[in-house]
Amino acid sequence: MRVAPTDVLLVVDVQVDFLPGGALAVPDGAAVVGPCNRLLRLFPHAVLTQDWHPPGHASFHTSYSGRAAFETVAMPYGAQMLWPEHCVQGSPGAAFAPGLDAARAELVIRKGHGRDVDSYSAFLEADRATRTGLAGALRERGFTRVVLCGLATDFCVAWSALDARAAGFEAVVVEDAVRGIDRDGTAAAWARMGAAGVGRIGLSEIASGRTDAAP
Ligand code: VGL
Ligand code: ZN
After folding, report:
1. Domain range holding 31?
2. pTM for the full model?
3. pLDDT in tens, 128-171
4. Pairwise CA distance, residues 38 & 11, whole Å
5. Is residue 1 part of a domain?
6. Which of 49, 158, 166, 186 has its CA 20 to 30 A from that of 32?
7. Active site residue 149
8. Ligand 1 pocket: which of 24, 82, 119 to mutate (most atoms <8 Å of CB)?
């Protein structure tokens, strides 16, 4: 694919807590930083997401007595997977990965900031009713295709790609610029995305649309 002026890159949750050594480390998560930087150079427009939870967030197992990480609890909006405390607002773990070329991004969407509702998706919180405002922002700017990279394939990347489709955008995930938390979950996420019309592409298949670049 060639990058078009109506494309926007969505760099999902490339944050310290999702890298090796972080509170909710994604296996091989650091491997996405280089490819995401390459994409940040290729795409003239980029938005970053930042998982951004208050202390005592409803997705933390420590917010319940006798609950372990990776168990699920019933929330008013459905089943909620419980996680180790991660990406607490303003904490070092919530910062963008060191080395991520974040400066050029035009917009940062922070998500999961309400104490009682999680948000894997950059578009819609887990109650599936509260909008983040991203769809409106992208539409107002005239973007029609969302190209996704970052962490984690089976959670925030997949939910964001599916919701991009649901909101009427084309969506494409760059397969070598994402990593998943769980292997089976990641395979299932790719299947769901494929069924929803989310495209899958390799980094090497993306050519710059900039007129100053060689064809
Ligand atoms: C994520 C679990 C909890 C993600 C965020 O970025 O994929 N996963 N919070
Ligand atoms: Zn989170």
Report:
1. 7-55+85-205
2. 0.96
3. 999 999 999 999 999 999 999 999 999 999 999 999 999 999 99
4. 12
5. no
6. 166
7. no
8. 24
211: in domain: no
Q: What is the pLDDT of residue 213?
A: 46
Q: In the prediction, which pLDDT does 210 show?
A: 58
Give tens-digit pLDDT for 87-143: 999 999 999 999 999 998 999 999 999 999 999 999 999 999 999 999 999 999 999
Q: Give the closest residue (by CA) to ligand 1 atom 8.
A: 155
**Total number of domains in the chain:** 1
